[in-house]
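DEPOSITED CHAIN:
***
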Amino acid sequence: MTITALHSQVKADTDEALLDMLASFPDHAPQLKAAMQHALLAGGKRLRPLLVHVVGEVLALDKSDCMTIACAVECIHAYSLVHDDLPAMDDDDLRRGKPTCHVAFDEATAILAGDALQTLAFSIIADAPMADTGHARRAGLVSMLARASGYLGMCGGQAIDLAATGKEVSVEALTQLHSLKTGALLRVCVEMATHVADDLDAEHRSALIRFADAIGLAFQVQDDILDVEGSSDTTGKPAGSDVALGKSTYPALLGLQAAKSELDRLHQQALQALQGLPYNTHLLVAFSELLVKRDH
């Protein structure tokens, strides 16, 4: 299967699964339910679910395990975007080419939608269908997702980002920021997928996680480049928004060409992590190329 075909399948399957979950909820808070659906199904690329399923294809994981992990991670990702867009944070009016949640609804509803999506992620890990091996390892999956989402991961990175706004930071500090804010959720996709793999060699798992770390940073470098070179038509958000908000970016610190060189270095680092693995890694290679060559 090609990465394009797998991506299309994963996106359709993830959208359907998330919509079915929301449809099963009672209608006692219809505006909140609609806001959650807006956040979850407003055109996301489903790159994190794709990464889970790519690892699943490489390691021959059970499809139900991959779907459960993918949906949980996507709920965390969606919640983070809802809260990032709020006036108290990045104050964005546009996300994926559509009004952000607080604009489409209101600020209070957006806050609650983010809260509800975060808790939904852990309900999915606790209760959604999994194979016997995955079912036996649910507690570990909860721990991994909580770590990647909270102070030690995404939220900690967001706090560093807010503290650094309007200030010039070092490349090292920017790397730490994005390893937490953006990279942690990509890394946990691989951590969780490999956690439910039966009899996976520890060195092979470590190599796959190194791959995830490298592409997590590469993803952010490309995001920064697109903020400079892209347009709102392709990226789905206002071009130059990071610069306008006074955020440190790789092009701002290194220059555009040096940022592109850093992107290439990280891409090569990701590919090197795959060398020596006793699997067909062509989908992982293709996924890395999808991330670094995307235009939105």
Observations:
- The CA atoms of residues 235 and 296 lie 4 Å apart.
- Strands lie at 94-95, 98-99.
- The domain at 3-293 is CATH 1.10.600.10 (Farnesyl Diphosphate Synthase).
